[in-house]
């Protein structure tokens, strides 16, 4: 069922606002009105329009200032400017800046509806209930997340490479899958691999495939994930952890649109859209020589940054209710939800592990509850258990590296040459490790202020 298009109408003349609003509603549009630019921006937090129709001359914030702020908050949202003071220079200036259309008051009825319909045909927001199926796995009412999703839908229509950045557990694979579902490749495979979870040779074999006998244990030919994703999308999670030698091979595959399996002498053509993700700072990794600049620019044609869960607190009760319903259906159908106090505790927690951590807490609560409504005490217990949970392999490795570096720097009193020798690394590599863990050798010299706490214990 098609929903009515939503128009945000902005004018500081109440009578004109009412008159134009009635005209738009008579055509079947859903209309939200605002008497100022500020009021219009405030309304975005509750409901996002498909098109904005704004007067140019308004006190405090005029139509062009509103347009510029809208583009910052909701890139790509079509804006039509109306003015009684229309002129060719104004129109040219407005359209050059990205305003969809510039109409002069009194507005011709047919001209207005033509402009609105044209704007709707290019609007990034969905026009019908079925159009939103691509994003069904992403539950949100956060304006910040909605902006990311708008950009995701816009970029899905092209075939450019997308780099998704964000903290671990923030939902990068879900967003990658949503982009795939919104694209013309949605009827082809979506294949995902974590580049930080496999040793180098196995990762190379998984990506590019191998011929029979390519290495010890290669008893048969193996098709790589590039070929498995043919016609669809390949999601490279934690791309920042990919070894440099494999980065070279990946770059070549993207540039030449073909792969050569390990141990093979022939290349195989590929048609794959690359979506990658990382929680690492790749700009810093490039400066330190850990990530190739040419590969970075191949992957980062469009960058989508996912906000951490703590920045979308309004989503926590929504996500928790959805997760508890799913968990209850699998395990305990009598569980109906969280008590108000329990929901408040969930909403006010920091969630360093983001959505993944929230899911763990919900699963624990459902597993342990004996009542239909999960009490606050059970949430508190689950949160405490999460704090003491076993870290992931990458987290444990990072913690050990930092502990080890602190230990050898203390032993050598900040002498990098000696510390690198003990660690069995050259000075360049050792400095890269120090930089990655934000450790300053000078702070370990006598009288320096060396880091303290649990990290210094191995």
From TrEMBL:
Biological process according to GO: phosphorelay signal transduction system; regulation of DNA-templated transcription
GO MF term set: ATP binding; DNA binding
Pfam families to which the protein is assigned, alphabetical: AAA_lid_14, Response_reg, Sigma54_activat
Classification via SUPFAM superfamilies: CheY-like, Homeodomain-like, P-loop containing nucleoside triphosphate hydrolases
Database matches in SMART domains: AAA, REC
Domain Response regulatory, residue spans: 6-120
Keyword ATP-binding attributed: yes
Domain named Sigma-54 factor interaction: residues: 138-367
Keyword line: ATP-binding, DNA-binding, Nucleotide-binding, Phosphoprotein, Transcription, Transcription regulation, Two-component regulatory system
KW ATP-binding (keyword) present: yes
Residue list for modification 4-aspartylphosphate: 55
NCBIfam families referenced in this protein's UniProt entry, alphabetically: PRK15115.1
Name of the molecule in the record: Two-component system, NtrC family, response regulator GlrR
Natural source organism: Aidingimonas halophila
């Amino acid at each position: 069922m098609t929903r009515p298009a939503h128009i945000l109408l902005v004018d500081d003349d109440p009578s004109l606002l009412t008159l134009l609003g009635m005209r738009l509603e008579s055509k079947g549009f859903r209309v939200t009105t605002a008497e100022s630019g500020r009021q219009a921006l405030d309304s975005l937090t509750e409901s996002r329009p498909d098109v904005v129709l704004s007067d140019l001359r308004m006190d405090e914030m005029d139509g062009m200032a509103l347009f510029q702020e809208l583009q910052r908050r909701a890139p790509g949202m079509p804006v039509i400017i109306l003015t009684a003071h229309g002129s060719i220079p104004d129109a040219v200036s407005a359209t050059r800046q990205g305003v969809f259309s510039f109409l002069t008051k009194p507005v011709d009825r047919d001209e207005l509806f033509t402009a609105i319909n044209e704007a709707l045909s290019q609007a990034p927001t969905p026009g019908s209930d079925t159009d939103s199926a691509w994003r069904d796995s992403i539950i949100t009412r956060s304006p910040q997340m909605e902006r990311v999703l708008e950009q995701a839908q816009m970029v899905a229509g092209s075939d450019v490479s997308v780099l998704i950045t964000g903290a671990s557990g923030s939902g990068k694979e879900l967003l990658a899958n949503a982009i795939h579902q919104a694209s013309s490749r949605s009827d082809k495979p979506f294949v995902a691999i974590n580049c930080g979870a496999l040793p180098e040779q196995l990762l190379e074999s998984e990506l590019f495939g191998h011929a029979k006998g390519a290495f010890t244990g290669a008893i048969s030919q193996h098709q790589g994930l590039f070929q498995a994703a043919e016609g669809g999308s390949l999601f490279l999670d934690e791309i920042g952890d990919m070894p440099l030698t494999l980065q070279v091979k990946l770059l070549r595959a993207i540039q030449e649109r073909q792969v050569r399996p390990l141990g093979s002498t022939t290349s195989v053509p590929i048609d794959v859209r690359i979506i990658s993700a990382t929680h690492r700072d790749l700009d810093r990794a490039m400066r330190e020589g850990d990530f190739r600049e040419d590969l970075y620019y191949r992957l980062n044609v469009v960058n989508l940054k996912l906000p951490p869960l703590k920045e979308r607190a309004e989503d926590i009760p929504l996500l928790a209710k959805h997760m508890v319903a799913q968990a209850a259906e699998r395990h305990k159908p009598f569980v109906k939800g969280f008590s108000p106090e329990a929901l408040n505790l969930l909403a006010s927690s920091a969630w360093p592990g983001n959505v993944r951590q929230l899911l763990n807490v919900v699963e624990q609560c459902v597993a342990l509850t004996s009542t239909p409504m999960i009490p606050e005490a059970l949430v508190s217990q689950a949160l405490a258990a999460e704090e003491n949970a076993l870290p992931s392999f990458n987290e444990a490795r990072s913690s050990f590296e930092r502990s080890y570096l602190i230990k050898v720097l203390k032993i050598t009193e900040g002498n990098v040459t000696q510390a690198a020798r003990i660690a069995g690394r050259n000075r360049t590599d050792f400095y890269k490790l120090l930089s990655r863990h934000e450790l300053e050798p000078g702070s370990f010299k006598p009288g320096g202020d060396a880091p303290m706490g649990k990290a210094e214990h191995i």
